[in-house]
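We give its fold:
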Amino acid sequence: MDSKVQVLPYWLRVLSATLVLGMGSGLVGIACHYLLEGIQLLAFGGEDHDLLKLFESASDFRRFLVLCLTGFLAAGFWYLLQNRHQIFSIKKQMELADRVRPNAFVHLSHAIMQVAIVGAGASVGKEGAPREVGALLGGRLSRFLCLSLSDQRLLIACGAGAGLAAVYQVPFASSLFVLETLGISWTSRNILLILISCYLADFLAQPLVGNGPLYQMTSLSWTAGSFLQALLLAAVVTPLAMGFAWLTKRASKNRTKNRRIICLLPIVFLALAVVAIDFPIFMGNGQVMAQWLLSEQSLPALPLVLILKGLFVYLLLRNGAYGGTLTPSFALGIGAGYLVTVIANRLGFAFSPSMGMLLGASVFLGTTLKAPLTGATLVLGFTGQPLLLSLPLLLASLSAQGISRILDNIREKAIKTPSPK
């Protein structure tokens, strides 16, 4: 088989792999979309696209029961899976592309469980699943077509970006995600292949996943004050985003995988279930909370809500669950941006709360992803805002990057400096 494939010109093999990967990732996005809707229908008995209404339409007991059962099922599944098999992250697949072949069944079932717990109300993101399956597909295609090691890594990264593009309909932001977060070099060839895979996945998934923005809000325009607001939010929100990124990274690195997961993960789901009885806004990946604020509805005790939301993400990841942090980061950025803007206005400023939410989300995403361009463009794509709004959003996310580097340098110097005797 290898000899037959190698007869084809190398450029044709690369192009074929990219096209098939784009189409395959589009199908992955469609599958994740319908799986999520199917889980929500099974769990809560409704098909309302307004997630808060969907959660509220179910009885208090049903929400409690669904989350508790999900905790036990997820704990048992991940304990058994990880006792028998190894799960490779996207970066690990890229690093070990010439040495390992991830088990397709293991990674597919792992992805399905991630989508399932989000559909049942877990406080983690759903984007991890399509990215991981897209990366798996990219690795398989590139090996089948006998591509070089560098192109195998490129196709794995392209698959991750294409999966993200398909499920959220953000092809340009997903392309930047591949370049900024996954460390692919910015050559014209790489950029072209990334764009082809991401836009093809988006195009194929669009008729079924939908091409409207993920969040509904009025269209905004910037003013001169928006740039001052961007700098203020970058200064205040960046340390919060860095703290959340550090906690979730630490949680994932030290994730419980032994027998303790059977006890600890259901306890976290139980705690979430108890809170969700009276406050279903805590359920899901953060989309409910973000949409509530973007619809200009007040949320009492917002600082406490943000702390609890971030805490649930941390506890789920630390105690054995898998999932993304992109959508939770967006929601936390929306809330932090709104909160800081309200406080600033009470001190005499006249900032737009709506603009503050988008700037906060841009800072939070850019910081947690370590990708300022991706953060700003994701905010535009998620909310359907005009392209001109990218100016203050980019200022906020790029300023946040500079601040995070300064804070990281200060922390590293503090660690290296010996304490006085």
Q: What stands out?
A: The chain has two domains: 10-209, 224-416. The two ends are 68 Å apart (CA to CA). The CA atoms of residues 124 and 323 lie 5 Å apart.
